[in-house]
Design goal:
alpha/beta; D-Maltodextrin-Binding Protein, domain 2; Alpha-Beta Plaits; ten-stranded mixed sheet; five-stranded mixed sheet; 9 helices
Length: 283
């Protein structure tokens, strides 16, 4: 049976993405993103599903940096999931919002609800956890007046009460999850494909005037649509960066080799991190 790893424990948005996308595979939770990725690299599991970007908080830098600097695995699919953050308490909690002493959750989840927390729970101490599922687990085991920020799956898994629904600051909140595996034939997603995407890593030879313009021009005159471009440090010294670029089309035998050749002629290093379908989930 195919084994799928995800950022756990139960009740995380990653688990929600896995449950919505996959059916009969064995699902195994990991405490951290690196542990999940390492498990694929070591052949302990077949597939890993990890978050890569949130519409409000931006890129999950840990995922990007780990794939670039530590473990090389191809991206074979992307899952886009709508995010609904709720305030979770134990079922026997009978107090008011002002009575909550601590709010537990992942740093991204807390940031997504910053306005609500600032307005309604100014006296609560913020406690950061490795995942929203872990936050729910902590609240379920505690006897104190504390709360977690998480989804309805977390509330169900840990027997918590949803005190307030949809406390995130912005309605259009989505998270992108990437699917990593050594064998893409194991990935069987029975949903319609929204679009195809190719992700490239482009490293400049040195800091030189007009370098970014030259890179973008290689795509622009070929009319290739870029949905994201982001710079990340190479970790070799101040001012040294590479670019992660998402192109909204599958890798082909004409346009992409042309871009690669043009950029390499400029002294750039070009790596394909993955070419893959994108699925949008309705939850």
């Amino acid at each position: 049976m195919t084994k799928i790893g995800y950022l756990g424990p139960k009740g995380t948005f990653t688990k929600l993405a896995v449950d919505t996308t996959f059916n009969n595979e064995e699902k195994i939770s990991y405490k951290t993103i690196p542990e999940c990725i390492d498990a694929v690299a070591a052949d302990k599991i077949d597939i890993a599903v990890v978050p890569i970007e949130n519409a409000i908080e931006g890129t999950v830098q840990l995922t990007v940096d780990y794939l670039i600097h530590e473990v090389t695995l191809p991206v074979v699919a992307e899952i886009v999931v709508p995010i609904q953050q709720h305030l979770l308490v134990r079922r026997d909690f009978s107090g008011e919002l002002a009575d909550i002493k601590e709010v537990h959750s992942h740093s991204h989840a807390i940031a997504q609800c910053h306005r609500y927390i600032h307005k309604n729970m100014t006296g609560a101490k913020l406690q950061y956890t490795t995942s929203t599922g872990r936050a729910a687990e902590i609240v379920a085991a505690s006897k104190e007046s504390i709360a977690a920020i998480g989804n309805s799956l977390a509330a169900e898994e840990y027997g918590l009460h949803i005190l307030q629904r949809n406390i995130h600051d912005y309605a259009n909140n989505h998270t992108r999850f990437i699917v990593l595996t050594k064998n893409r034939e194991l990935v069987n997603i029975k949903h319609s494909v929204q679009l195809d995407k190719t992700t490239l890593k482009i490293t400049l030879p040195s800091d030189q005037p007009g370098a970014l313009h030259q890179i973008l021009s290689a795509f622009a005159w070929r009319k290739m649509n870029l949905s994201k471009i982001e710079s990340r440090p190479t970790k070799t010294g101040l001012g040294n960066y590479f670019f992660i670029i998402d192109v909204n089309q599958a890798y082909d035998d004409a346009l992409f080799p042309g871009v690669k050749g043009e950029l390499e002629a400029l002294g750039c290093e070009v790596d394909v991190l993955g070419t893959y379908p994108v699925y949008h989930m309705d939850i």
